[in-house]
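cron nightly-structures :: item 1 of 1
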Amino acid sequence: MKIILAGYNLDSETIREFQEQNPEAKHLTPETISAAYARISRSPKSVDELRDIARREVEKARQSNRNIVFEMGHSSVAEHAVFNIDVLGVSRLLVEEIEKFRLCSYTEKSQRYVLFKDDFHVPEEIRAAGFEESFVETVREQNRVYQDLYGRLKPHVFKKYGDLAADPANSSMLEGWAKEDARYVIALATETQLGMTINARNLELMLRRLAAHPLAEAREFSGKLYEATKDTAPSLIRYTEATDYDRLTRKALKGAVDALLKEKGTEKGDAACLKDESVTLLHATPHADDIIVAALIHSSSDLPMTRCMEMTSLLDRNDKERIIKTTLRHMKSYDTVLREFENVYLHFELIISASCFAQMKRHRMATITSQDYDPSLGVTVPPAISEIGMEEPFLKTIKETGETYRKIAKTAPMAAAYTLTNAHRKRVAMKINARELHHIARLRADRHAQWDIRAIAEAMIALGKEVMPMTLMLATGKDGFSSLYHQVMEVVP
C-alpha cells in the first residue's frame, strides 16, 4: 500500500506570489490533477507518474480534460478540481439562491454572532421601478429598530440567565442570543459574506443557473464568479451561459399552474389552502419500521431483499425492536445511525421564518423546495421581544415593511422580497430520510440550538415518531440523548 498527498488548498495570494517569483511556472492549476485522475482508467502508469506528466505538459492535460469531460461526457472528472471562493457584499436573499447547490460547502457570516450595521443591497429592479427612496427608508428604519432591539435585549438576556451571566466565559453566547432575536427585524436585502468551496463541475452549473436567474443580483454574481475563475481551469468550465431550460422552465411552470388554478377555481391565498400548522407531515414511507428491519437483515445476511421482507412480516414487535436496538446499542450522541436508515422517508411541509430557513437549508442531504416569501403567512416574533415590551414597535415596523413590499410588488414582484425581514415566512417542502432526521434531531433539538429551529425540529421528530417509532426511537438532541438512551435501552444509569 502507498498513500501520496496529491495536493491541498493554497491561498490564492500564496500562488500569486510564487508565480511572480517563478513566471515560467505554468502548472499551478487544478486541471493537472483532473487530467491525471482521468487517465487512471486507461493508463498502465501509476497515478503519481500521470500527475508528473500532466504538470510538465499542461496544454496536453487541458486538451485531455476537454476530450474526456465534454466530448466523452465524463463530467465527474471536473469534480477533482476544487475552488475556494470568497463571496462578499451579497444579500441574504441571494445567499438562499447560492446555497441551493447542495454539493458545495458554505460558511456564512452569522447574524447570530455578528452585530450587523447599515449595509444592504439596493436591487437594480427597485431602482428601475422608481422605489429606491422608499425602499432605502424602510430598510434603514428596520436597521434602526434592530439596533434598538439589541440594546434592550442584551441586558434582558443577561438578567434572565443570571446563572450563566455569572461566568464571563458565557458573555459571547448570551450576546449572541440577543443578536439572534434582534435580527428578526432586518431585511433580506442585508449584505453578508461567505466562504464557498466548490468543484469545477458544480461551479459550471452554478454559473449557468444563476446567469438565467430573474434577479439582477444573481446574474451579476454569475458574471463576477466567472471572471474570478475562468482563467484557472478553462478546460473544465465551458458551458456558462444561460440556457432556455434554466431561463424559461420555472416561468412556464408558474404560468401553467396559475392557469390551472384559475381554471379549477382555486386562487392564490384560498382559505382552503391555508394551514395554521407550522409543521405538517404530508407523507411517510408505509411500514417504515419493517423496511428498516428488513434492510438491516439484508446487509447482515446472504438473503435476497424479498426474503428479508417476508421474514420481517412474520416477526413480532419484540423481534423487530431487538434488531434495531442492536444497531443502537453502542451509539453515543455524536454517532450517526447506519446507512440502512436512509431507506425510509418523511415528507414535511414547513411554514417557517427566513431566520429558521437560513438554518434548515444547511441540511443538504434532503430535498428542499420552497415558495416565495408570503407576507400573508404572518411573521415569527421572538418571545424575548415580547418579554421586553417591544412587540408593538416590532410589529409596527413589520406593517410598514408590508406597505413598502406591496408597492414594489406591483412593478417588480421578484425584487420586492428584498424588503421583507427575517421574521417573514414561507412554505417549504422538505423530504428527508430517517438517517437525516436523526442528524437534524441531534443538532437542532438540542437545548443549545436556536429556539426557532428547535421548535420546528421537535415538531418534525414528534410527527416522525408517530409513523416510525422504532426507527426514530433515539431521535433527540445531544443534551437529551443520554437520558433517552437509558430509557429506550432500559439501562440503569
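cron nightly-structures :: done
Residues 12-80 form one domain.
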